[in-house]
Amino acid sequence: MPGSAAPLLQVAALSKAFGGLLAVDDLSFTIDPGEVLGLLGPNGSGKTTTFGLVAGALRPDRGDILFAGRPVTRWPASRRAAVGIARTFQLIRVFLSLTALENVLVACLYGRGRARSPARARADACALLEQVGMAHKRDARARDLTLGERRRLEIARALATRPRLLLLDEPVAGLTATEVDAAVALFRGIRAEGVAIALVEHNVRAVRALCDRVVVLHAGRKIAQGTPEDVFAHAAVVAAYLGRR
Amino acid sequence: MTVLWQNVVFGALIGGLYGLAAVGLSLVFGVLNMLNVAHGELLMLGGYAAFWLFTLFGVDPFVSILPSAAALFVVGLVLYRVLFERLASAPGETKLKNSILIGFGVSLVLQTLALIAWTADERAVTTAAAGAVLPLGGAVVPVVRLGALIVAFLALGGLHLFLRRARFGRAIRATADDPGAASLVGIPVGTVFAVAFGLGSALAGVAGALVSTTDAVSPAIGLSWTLKALIVVVLGGVGHVFGTFVAGVLLGVAESVSGFFLGNAYREVMGLVLFLVVLSVRPQGLFARE
Amino acid sequence: MRGAVPLGALSAACGVAAAVLLPVLTTNQALLSWAFLVLLYTALAQSWNLLGGFGGQVNLGHAAFFGLGALATRMLWLGGAPVILALAAGTGAATAAGIVIGAPSLRLRGPYFAIGTLAIAEILRITTGNVLPDVSSLPAGDLARYALAPRYYLAVFAAVTITSAAWWLARSRFGHGLAAVREDEAAAEAIGVGAFRHKLGAFALSSGFAGMTGGIFAYYHVSFYPAFVFSPVWTFDPLVIVYLGGVGTVWGPLAGAAFFVVLQEVLSLQVGEPHLLVFGLLFLVVVIAAPGGLVEALRALCRPGARRPAEVGSPPPA
Predict the structure, then answer these.
(1) Distance in angstroms between the alpha carbons of the first and the last residue of chain C
(2) Is C130 in contact with B273 (Cβ distance < 8 A)?
(3) Could you tell me which residues are beta bridge partners of residue A221?
(4) How far apart are CA B199 and CA C31, in angstroms?
(5) Which three-class secondary structure string do you get for C238-289?
(6) Distance separating alpha carbons of residues A240 and C318, to the nearest angstrom
(7) Nearest to C160 by CA among C170, C168, C148
(8) Pairing mode of beta strands A165-169, A196-200
(9) DSSP 3-state of B132
(10) Closest CA to B117 of B57, B48, B69, B204
């Protein structure tokens, strides 16, 4: 499937600086429909900034972003969500004083597949909570949930907008091995529904299990791309993570 | 022309007090990321301290700044420990918003307590030096106002030195920069927060004592001084001690000059309009480095 | 939720009926006056609650819109217009002002928004005091014809309308989006909620209703100084009422307003303004320890231990 259709996301010559710090430097990559792309690199290499640029939370200094052929570079985040770009955050951002159900409900009302009636939206929200295994915590306040539960809630909320591209920022950080496997299974299920995924992750096991391709960043620049096996063997990648000998 | 110059001089004199009033607020905002909107009420208490020390014991208000500062330092510490400390670990937006709410509640309580204790009557301190003036290029400079300006300037100088040179002062600056890093290098961040809050309150006390020499003190003056302080903090940029002082003087002069041209009734409006303009164009302040 | 909705609707209907019938059942002017004040404060507090509670944006310049509505209504009414038209115009003026002022000020971060709106209200107060320094009194004819009942009914109308707006906000799509923006603006944007649109909408609603309440006040008060309607008390009283009653809830403003007016009556016989002291202390207690206010406290009393169904308009974290 990957490679057989026009790319879903095209990022071209993207650059973003914060003050004197060049966080993303002339970055280009693509994501095909239904593909899982890993975005790797040491801390500070620009991965989260890239997500922010693609999702619309940040504006690039230079470069273009095309989504399903449309130039979305100047679009606000809410408009991009309406055409199918969804994201989770590195430091989980659920709506703390709303219940789990309400968290997902809002997204059902506003995303790409805007529910026509409140009853329909509620039903969709319940189904999504079911999908991520959170149905039993429907009426719990988000601030009373554990880390793993909040992660799942955030994913359900992102899915509620019926995305075509899901940006996951370190979704398995801080989870136990069992929880990681469950998360991987969940992401596989999402991908099976035709949603493309971009994944920022340090957990090598998860990357190997999920990613079709991987792009490696270092100091904001792309230094390698390819299949996980190829990339992990790449000398430059090893050097970037471990430091030059 | 001399009237205009007189206005400028008066504006600069009162502006020094605006600057002093603002620095305490700026310190708390910069170090704790909390906006204590009861700052004006603390200033009011300082004014009353000076008034009662003068009325009951004949203490000159310029001497009263010391006990006033000490008393308000303690008040600040107590307020921090009892009310504001619980906010210290909250995320930025929530912390700021709740500090505004708590500050609002404190201002209401302090204002009403003052009203019950001392009635709404306006109090003034008239010392022996009250009428004395110095000539300055065609304008007259009331000695008392000049004294207040000088003391304000000295207080700020002292604060500046403390923050630059003293070990604890540097600890305060480090905490303002990055509380996480500060605690990692062993700085007692909790103590720093409490002391900074106390210090900010003490500065309000000093300002209040100086205000009592030239203006009336009553329970109602809190809000307008808080607003003045807020305006100056925004004009000068948070955390810049002398920038805040200069911004205060600028505000004072702007008010006086606009009062001269537009009529006294619009003095305050000018300051508020200037504030809104700066807020929309350069919210980080006129003197911020960014 | 079994039975909860019909019971709630029934109580609300009874309450409205009682309010409407009160002038028929009693001619006790003191009681009517008291009821009028409760309804007026409910309306004003609820208007603040729309933006401050449901929207999470602390607006310290609410008095600006109360005042604009009051002045516009007063001037048109005393100029000969029928009071209903004057009131509508006052509401419209306040709404328009809300959009004009809201658009630039909502771009400011939290504390700057709060102080900026306060500055705007103060500018209006001082300017009005300079331009219209003379007291506004009712001419003899209107004074002779003065009756509390029409004012009272307008207050009922306002309280019911604005509370209905809050009720709608707690359940509608817009309200859900607004709650999301209140909780976390960036996350709300990420799921498709346009934050600025929602904040501005809430601001316009809030300011328009504040203007309506101000207009009713202008119709009610026999004489006042024009600058008075821009006084900060018209921001701070609703703020205290909302928090005491339960910020971000539909019924909080009513509970808070009743409590506020009663306490004010009880304590007003004392010297100084001790009711303000009590309110200030209670306000602090609520903000620090009991963010749900009276509504939450009453709920805990009535159904201890039971987990209540969630309201989107539930109190934001304190």
Answers:
(1) 27
(2) no
(3) A218
(4) 50
(5) HHHHHHHHCCCCCCHHHHHHHHHHHHHHHHCCCCCCHHHHHHHHHHHHHHHH
(6) 44
(7) C168
(8) parallel
(9) coil
(10) B48
**Domain ranges for chain B:** 29-226
User: Cβ of C193 and A110 within 8 Å?
Assistant: yes
B-facing residues of C in 195-234 (CB < 8 A) are: 232
In the CATH scheme, what architecture does the domain A1-84+163-245 have? 3-Layer(aba) Sandwich (3.40)
Q: What share of chain B is helix, strand, coil (3-state, %, to 5)?
A: 80, 5, 20
DSSP 8-state secondary structure symbol assigned to residue A141: B
Q: Does C283 touch chain B (CB under 8 A)?
A: yes
The string of DSSP codes covering A149-173 is HHHHHHHHHHHTT--SEEEEESTTT
A85: helix, strand or coil = strand
Q: Does A3 touch chain C (CB under 8 A)?
A: no
Question: Which residue matches tokens 């006042």?
Answer: C224
Taking the C-alpha atoms of residue A18 and residue C57, their distance in angstroms, rounded to an integer, is 28
The answer to whether B223 contacts C119, with C-beta atoms less than 8 Å apart, is no
Q: How far apart are CA C37 and CA C257, in angstroms?
A: 8
Binary contact (A87, C190; C-beta < 8 A)? yes
In chain A, residues with a C-beta closer than 8 Å to the C-beta of C194 are: 76, 78-79
In the predicted structure, residue A15 carries a pLDDT above the cut 80: yes
Tell me if C271 and B112 make a contact (CB, 8 A cut-off).
no
The pair of structure tokens assigned to B12 is 């600069």
Q: Does C277 touch chain B (CB under 8 A)?
A: yes
Q: Which residue of B has its CA nearest to C183?
A: B94
**pLDDT of the residue at A41:** 87
C194 vs B: CB within 8 A: no
Q: Spell out the residues 6+ positions from residue B131 whose beta carbon is closer than 8 angstroms to its own.
A: none
**Residue C310 to residue A102, Cβ atoms within 8 A:** yes
Give the span between the Cα atoms of C63 and C59, in whole angstroms. 10
Instruction: Report how far apart the first and last C-alpha atoms of chain B are (Å, whole number).
Output: 38
Report residue C16 CA to chain centroid gap. Answer: 18
pLDDT (0 to 100) of residue C271:
59
Q: Could you report the average pLDDT of every consecutive run of 10 residues in chain C (318 residues)?
A: 63 83 81 92 97 93 96 93 94 96 88 90 93 87 85 93 94 94 94 95 97 96 92 94 94 94 80 78 91 86 57 44
Q: For C76, what's the count of Cα atoms within 13 Å in the CB-facing half-sphere? A: 21
The pLDDT value given to residue C311:
41
Neighboring chains of A (3 or more beta-carbon pairs < 8 A): C
Give the 3-state secondary structure of residue B244. Answer: helix
Q: Which of C107, C191, C198 to mutate to test the interface with A (most CBs of A within 10 A)?
A: C191
C184 to chain A: which residues are within 8 Å by CB? 93-96
Ranges in chain A annotated CATH 3.40.50.300 = 1-84+163-245
Task: Give CA–CA dist A216/C277, Å, rounded.
Answer: 62
Q: Tell me if A97 and C317 make a contact (CB, 8 A cut-off).
A: yes
β-strands A36-40, A213-218 pairing: parallel
Q: Which residues contact C290 (CB under 8 A, 6 or more apart)?
A: C296, C297
